[in-house]
Automatic annotation (TrEMBL):
InterPro entries xrefs: COMT-like (IPR016461), COMT_C (IPR001077), COMT_dimerisation (IPR012967), SAM-dependent_MTases_sf (IPR029063), WH-like_DNA-bd_sf (IPR036388), WH_DNA-bd_sf (IPR036390)
Protein name: O-methyltransferase
Domain of life: Eukaryota
Domain O-methyltransferase C-terminal: 228-375
Organism: Zasmidium cellare (Wine cellar mold)
Key words of the record: Methyltransferase, S-adenosyl-L-methionine, Transferase
Sequence ranges assigned to domain O-methyltransferase dimerisation in this UniProt record: 65-122
Organism lineage string: Eukaryota, Fungi, Dikarya, Ascomycota, Pezizomycotina
Coiled coil (residue ranges): none
């Protein structure tokens, strides 16, 4: 075997199991692998990948989701004829789409025209999980992909500072819509799907409470009486459940409060919450009813808002904090200063923040300035996994 053949064999047999749970190294390797693929492709190949392949991939995934292909797959090899019979698809069309899915590693070809499930296809079986992202794409993102270049052309190629003028409204054909993104997806019935999609994405992520020094940063200094942590805008409660699982054995009486809109809390209770968790409807633009908690926690809340609204949210929390005792914990992405260090997912999410909220993913310098602008003392930030960090602040 030549050195080139040996290299190719190594690349073909490498997977995430070699990292033994080291998420930071795994994500660095994934980014390096993507960069390698880009360096190996000629420009025409790259354009083929970005322009032609991705549209075919989305159509294939959406169509096969509609016919419930993922539930038909198993570890037992099946031909396209068998799968066509189960799904009701024409065999010829299904086999052609299966070719696309095999190239994406959504499906594995065990033998010629014989298919088995993959880790990805098993995840997509859950109708209330990550697969809901497809509905979000076809209902919202596809329209923005088609129309936002024209929006920027007409509006001087700039992001408005006023969230009421968010570009998504123009793309959705409702430029005079008075409310924001969250109210809009509520009105058109997409809110449960969006929450399910986010929950599905986060389900595969490590527990922040298992990776962050909870004992040192949270439990030490807690008076044992006040609310230990308030999860503001906590969705279905995954983050606060993670904390409950970590502390329950030794701190079963610690009060943990999940706050969100009533409709979201209803979904959270229906999906099952740790018994230690209390739910409390709350609008984070209004005074927080929980005063003097040990910690106020928000996960990817502030990044949804421009600086003006972000300051309002942070000020309401600050006004409920107790000097010398309470902490503000923001679980957020931190944008690297250098574009060379930016993960492609983070770069894309940053633009979605601009399109939907006139907001952005902030650098550490920007986070520090934002927190200090409302009178909070910036303590620092600590990595949890990937480009996700917990930023800490307190009253001066």
């Amino acid at each position: 075997m030549t050195s080139t053949e040996a290299l190719i064999e190594t690349l073909n047999t490498t997977d995430k199991s070699i990292f033994h749970g080291d998420e930071i190294s795994r994500m660095k390797a994934a980014r390096a692998a993507r960069k390698l693929a880009q360096r190996l492709e000629a420009p025409w190949e790259r354009m083929y990948t970005e322009i032609i392949n991705k549209s075919s991939e989305l159509v294939s995934v959406k169509t096969c989701t509609d016919v419930k292909l993922w539930s038909c797959l198993s570890s037992t090899p099946q031909t396209s004829a068998h799968l066509a019979e189960k799904t009701g698809m024409d065999q010829g069309l299904l086999r052609r789409m299966l070719r696309v899915l095999v190239t994406m590693d959504f499906v594995e070809e065990a033998d010629v025209d014989t298919y088995v499930e993959t880790e990805m296809s098993k995840e997509l079986r859950d109708p209330d999980g990550m697969i809901l992202g497809l509905d979000m794409y076809y209902s919202l993102s596809l329209k923005m992909t088609q129309l936002l270049p024209e929006y920027f052309k007409r509006h001087g190629y700039r992001i408005p500072e006023d969230i009421s003028q968010a570009p998504f409204k123009w793309a959705m054909g409702m430029p005079e819509y008075k409310d924001g993104f969250w109210a809009m997806i509520d009105e058109i019935g997409l809110s449960p799907k969006f929450n399910g999609f986010l929950s599905g994405l986060r389900r595969g992520q490590p527990s922040w409470a298992a990776l962050w020094p909870v004992e040192e940063k949270l439990l030490e200094g807690w008076d044992g009486k006040s609310v230990l942590l308030v999860d503001i805008g906590g969705g279905k409660g995954r983050d606060i459940c993670n904390l409950a699982e970590v502390i329950h054995e030794n701190h079963a009486n610690a009060r943990l409060v999940l706050q969100d809109r009533p409709s979201v809390l209803e979904e959270a209770r229906a999906s099952g919450l740790h018994p230690q968790i209390e739910t409390m409807p709350h609008d984070f633009f209004k005074p927080n009813p929980v005063h003097g908690a040990r910690a106020y926690f928000e996960h990817s809340v502030v990044h949804d808002w421009p600086d003006k609204e972000a300051r309002e949210i942070l000020t309401q929390i600050k006004n409920s904090m107790q000097s010398g005792y309470s902490k503000l914990l923001l679980m957020e992405r931190v944008m690297p200063e250098s574009a060379k260090e930016v993960d492609p997912n983070l770069a894309s999410i940053d633009l979605h923040m601009a399109f939907n909220f006139c907001a952005q993913e902030r650098t550490e310098v920007q986070w520090r300035a934002l927190l200090q602008s409302v009178g909070l003392k910036y303590v620092g930030y600590q990595p949890v996994f990937g480009k996700t960090y917990i930023l800490e602040a307190e009253l001066p």
